[in-house]
């Protein structure tokens, strides 16, 4: 099962507005790109604890409930950023 299949299964399970929000971001890579485009240094996120990342994302106006739409915690997001950066 590929990533696209997993996203589709998650959207089916979430239904309604949550699924629409998840679809609008197109996946975790798109979410990470949006974080980077906002001016946040992704490599800095990999050195921060979850509480600091949460505060920073909220400061930049990110709605952290979108992580829940992907079934991710802030810790998971940090790991995804590390993967994205090849760390």
Please compute the radius of gyration using only Cα atoms.
13 Å
Would you report the number of β strands? 0
Q: How many individual helices?
A: 7
Kindly state the percentage of residues in helix. Answer: over 70%
Mean pLDDT: 79
Question: Which runs of at least 5 residues are low in confidence (pLDDT < 50)?
Answer: none
Element pattern in H and E: HHHHHHH
Anisotropy-based shape = globular
Strand content: under 5%
How would a crystallographer describe the biggest sheet? none
- Please, how many domains? 1
Describe this structure in words.
- The mean pLDDT is 79.
- It is globular and about 35 Å long.
- α1 runs antiparallel to α2 (16-25).
- The chain has one domain.
- It is built from seven helices and no strands.
- By secondary structure, the chain is mainly α.
- The longest helix is centred in the N-terminal third of the chain and has 12 residues, at 3-14.
- The relative contact order is 0.16.
What attributes does this structure have?
72% helix; 87 residues; single chain; mainly alpha
How would the blueprint of this fold be written?
Layout: H1 3-14, H2 16-25, H3 28-37, H4 42-45, H5 50-59, H6 65-69, H7 74-85
Brief description of this entry?
By secondary structure, the chain is mostly helical.
């Amino acid at each position: 099962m590929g990533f696209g299949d997993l996203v589709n299964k998650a959207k089916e399970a979430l239904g309604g507005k949550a699924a629409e929000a998840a679809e609008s971001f197109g996946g975790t890579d798109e979410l990470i790109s949006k974080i980077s485009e906002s001016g946040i240094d992704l490599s800095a996120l990999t050195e921060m604890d979850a509480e600091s990342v949460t505060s920073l994302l909220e400061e930049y106006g990110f709605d952290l409930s979108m992580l829940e739409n992907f079934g991710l915690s802030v810790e998971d997001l940090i790991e995804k950023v590390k993967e994205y950066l090849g760390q």
